[in-house]
Amino acid sequence: MSTPLSQAEQFKGLVEWLGKAILAPEQFTLGYNGEASEFIRFNKGKVRQAGQVQQASLSLKLIHDGRHADVNLTLAGEPNVDKQRLADALRQLRDTLPLLPADPYLLLNPQPWNSHNVQNQPLPDTARVLEEIRSASKGVDLVGFYASGPISYGYASSEGAFGWHQANSFNFDWSLFHSNGQAVKASYAGADWDSERFARRMQLAREQLSFLDRPLHALAPGEYRAYLAPAALEEVMSMLCWGGFSAQALASKSSPLQKLYAGDAQLSPLVSFDEQVSQSLSPAFSGEGYPRQDLSLVKHGKAEQQLVSSRSAAEYGLEVNGAPEGEAPSALAMAAGSLVQADILKQLGTGLYISNLWYLNYSDQPAARLTGMTRFATFWVENGEIKAPVNTMRFDDSVYSLLGSQLEALTAERELLLSASTYDQRQTASNLLPGALVKKLTLTL
């Protein structure tokens, strides 16, 4: 009996077939997305649903005389069936191309390249993970979702480029609910399951849960010292990444960080952001067929590089640096500070400890001014001690304040926050972030 082909071998076989089926001067690019994931849903600390998903798909682009068209198809995992599906897709695109205009901003990478990266660290044993979750959540109402498994990406082109990437990872996203309806939200993700690190994360969540017993502390609108935990800071960064570092947004003057890149504003010298592909789960090549590299986006509070996709490069005369089509970071890493975990409350003194934020939007995008709500475990702290939970409040403040003039310290420990999205398939996007202590956060209601 023959050994089943691996995903990489199946993809390579399809690329070779497509290379022979193309009629010069046609060109093609072929993308691959796949996963073999295990999903487990928890309610009241018990497994309520478990399942596995194995899927793979192709995205084929056919190019001829400046025209191009795309089609996506699901793979069956059977070479003959998949070649037939690819042949049908190729015929469909050939019929479509004559109906389309030429694209003036199409910029194919003419260089052949090869990239192969398989991060296949052994994933945690499911039985062991379940036992640790069961033990750590004993006596509390835990609701959560655990996902684990390899995610694969491939890319090939008629110009001789070929890339393959596989990353094994897990992501446990959970909440601990109090009988009064309030909750503490937490997550633990990565490639290597560390029992001690998970236990510490769960213990912190349980400690925060115990404070939700206390009567709510009423706050009036105003300015308060605040500590933003990494999960809260991630919400701020998610908004900034929406066009903040994009070459297209900067060229069209629509970036929320326009003033930073123009040199008219700056962040705190403590702040540095990198697109750190080399130490992440993300592939070292883009879906547009360009190798990716580590980029310094902001260094010591001042803007440096932009994220440049092929279309922005063609339109604005820039050099492609492997950014994806949306020009948003997929492996954002913020430099750590010196504030140690044990000293956070002491350094905060009196103010707000904010675990999570949500419903963020821009109240003044050119000024990078954000508004949003506190969520889950937000506490009032006095003299370095948590006194009471705080009701949901709205904040409205500028990033140039929160990460600029009012930033006091960043934590020495950073948290890896993987995308929990399972839309279409699991993702490899990540944020590596510290917590931030700010002198002033403005609450409006």
Automatic annotation (TrEMBL):
Entries under InterPro entries matching the protein: Metalloprtase-TldD/E_C, TldD/PmbA_N, TldD/PmbA_sf
Single GO biological process annotation from the record: proteolysis
Any GO MF annotation of the entry: metallopeptidase activity
Domain Metalloprotease TldD/E C-terminal positions: 221-443
Pfam families: PmbA_TldD_3rd
Keywords: Hydrolase, Protease
UniProt KW Cell division keyword: no
Name of the protein: Zn-dependent protease
Organism: Pseudomonas fragi
Lineage: Bacteria, Pseudomonadati, Pseudomonadota, Gammaproteobacteria, Pseudomonadales
